[in-house]
Amino acid sequence: MPSTVVIGGQWGDEGKGKIIDILSRKSDYIVRYQGGNNAGHTVVIGGEQFILHLVPSGILHKGKVCVIGNGVVVNPEALIVEIENLKKRGIKVSSNLFVSEGAHLIFPYHWTIDQLREKAKGKGKIGTTKRGIGPCYIDKVGRSGIRIADLMDDKLFRVKLKDNLNEKNRILRKAYGSKGYSFEQMYKKYCTYRQKIRKYVANTTLIVNKALDEGKQVLFEGAQGTLLDVDFGTYPYVTSSNSTAGGACIGTGVSPARIGKVIGVVKAYTTRVGEGPFPTEFSDRLMNIVRNKGKEFGATTGRPRRCGWFDALIVRHSILVNGIKEIVVTKLDVLDDLKRIKICTGYRYRGKVHRTFPANIEMLFRAKPIYEELPGWERDTSGITSYNRLPKNAKHYLKRLSTILDVKIKMVSLGADRKQVLNL
Ligand code: IMP
Questions:
Q1: For ligand 1, mutation pick of 13, 54, 106, 239 (most atoms within 8 Å of CB)
Q2: Other CB atoms closer than 10 Å to residue 70's CB: what's the count?
């Protein structure tokens, strides 16, 4: 079956950008299916760094077709800036990029509402990227959103934007004391965006299904991670889309019967950005060591990421809900200097031991992790080019992960560059 979904098995930032870039070589189509410019996929090629927020990472390869599916929420300004920046760096973006006419558009009132809601929540905030993602998906589900197809039809767009602004300005003024937005200014701005994005807009459901009919290799690029999925994550500390493999069908119009396999990308430890429970989170000393060595700062917002030990409960949950048969372990080299390394294999809560991931958020906040402790390898692995050359304890760590998770490890990544990867 010529289709593969790549998803994050933790809370996002697992290094999917690099893995998708590697898998893109063997793919013909690379398709984003959910999220928006809250994502930041980093790819390093020959020391040069590219951070992609909306455009699939496959754009960096010649001859690939990249698709932004209907499940993505598109900030047109961010998309235009990203395309222009790629072009300035010599990357071709023209007939190799398609954007779904069914994708919902992000408007400035979405960012403003995102920011004001977070501020109003105070300590209970989610810690969003403030890109308007949640409010845009709220409008989609609330049936008041504006899709790219609506923007393409001037008459329809005027009506929809007027209706939305009437409602949004009332909310902004009455609930938040904010001044709201002028229709004419926003309308004009979006008309200029229309001109710039029109050439990419297409019925991407037809395009991707036709590619599959022709036996082309299609790679679905998940953004964020399983624990940020609105259904399967640490709700409400999640994003507003289905970042799990199932989202690939809804977000593109491809049947589940056409999905071949699902590859999960997991970091050799755990990180998360924003608020919410994190049972294996490090205390200050280890946090600083791992954060600095792993350069754990958000690719979109620059926020420092919270870091902790590998949590097998959350990854087993990911394996289950995504149907993962193979994983890729990234950033193993970040653990190089540590004397002891831990894997969380259970949670203790109110005197009971739990071996499966719970939906109860209170329990996740209070759970005490049960660890298996392993010796570190205390050697630099970043230059290693074959699995056999890895230090014995590093291999032992990987084997324990594979056994505890009951899954095959397909690849191990030991640094940011395309070349720093071991195939198992
Ligand atoms: P939102 O997607 O901006 O609404 O943010 C909701 C939560 O998802 C916050 O905890 C964010 O930090 C997190 N989040 C959103 N996108 C990413 C990502 O690409 N990587 C990691 N965390 C993310």
A1: 239
A2: 23
- Number of domains forming the structure of the chain: 3
Select from 197, 213, 246 the last residue of a domain.
Answer: 197
Q: Tell me if the pTM is above 0.85.
A: yes
Distance 135 CA to ligand 1 centre (A): 13
- What spacing in Å lies between the alpha carbon of 40 and ligand 1's midpoint? 10
Using DSSP bridges, classify how beta strands 218-221 and 368-375 pair: parallel, antiparallel or unpaired.
unpaired
Which of 281, 270, 266, 306 minimizes the C-alpha distance to 366?
281
Phi/psi of residue 313, nearest 5 degrees:
-65, -45
Mean pLDDT of 342-363: 95
Mean pLDDT across 101-108: 98
Query: Measuring from atom 5 of ligand 1, which residue has the nearest CA?
Result: 128
Q: List pLDDT tens digits, range 284-308.
A: 899 999 999 999 998 888 899 999 9
Average pLDDT in the chain: 96
Out of 21, 28, 41, 337, pick the active-site residue. 41
Domain ranges, residue 121: 104-197
CA of 114 to the centre of ligand 1 (A): 12
User: Would the CB of 70 count as within 6 Å of ligand 1?
Assistant: no
Interstrand relation of 310-311 and 306-308 (parallel, antiparallel or unpaired) = unpaired
Residues whose CB is less than 8 angstroms from the CB of residue 372 and which lie 6 or more positions away in sequence, other chains included: 342, 343, 345, 400, 404
- 114 shares a domain with 86: no
| CATH number of the structural domain spanning residue 405 | 3.90.170.10
Q: Whose CA is nearest to atom 19 of ligand 1?
A: 39
- In terms of domains, do 129 and 187 share one? yes
> ∠ at Cα 268 (266, 272), nearest 5°?
65
Q: Do residues 94 and 108 both lie within one domain?
A: no
pLDDT of 67 strictly over 90 = yes
Tokens of 12: 């996002």
Q: How confident is the model at residue 156 (pLDDT cuts 50, 70, 90)?
A: very high
Please tell me whether residues 283 and 401 are part of one structural domain: yes
Mean pLDDT over 328-343 rounds to 97
Asked if 191 and 283 sit in the same domain, the reply is no
Q: Which of 153, 177, 197 finishes a domain?
A: 197
**Residue 104 known to be catalytic:** no
**Whether residues 252 and 305 fall in one domain:** no
Q: Is 224 in the pocket of ligand 1 (CB under 6 A)?
A: yes
Based on the fold, state whether residues 284 and 359 are members of the same structural domain: yes
Verify that 372 and 271 share a domain, yes or no.
yes
Could you tell me if the CB of 345 is within 6 A of ligand 1?
no
CB of residue 8 inside a 6 A radius of ligand 1: no
41 is catalytic: yes
At residue 1, does pLDDT exceed 70?
A: no
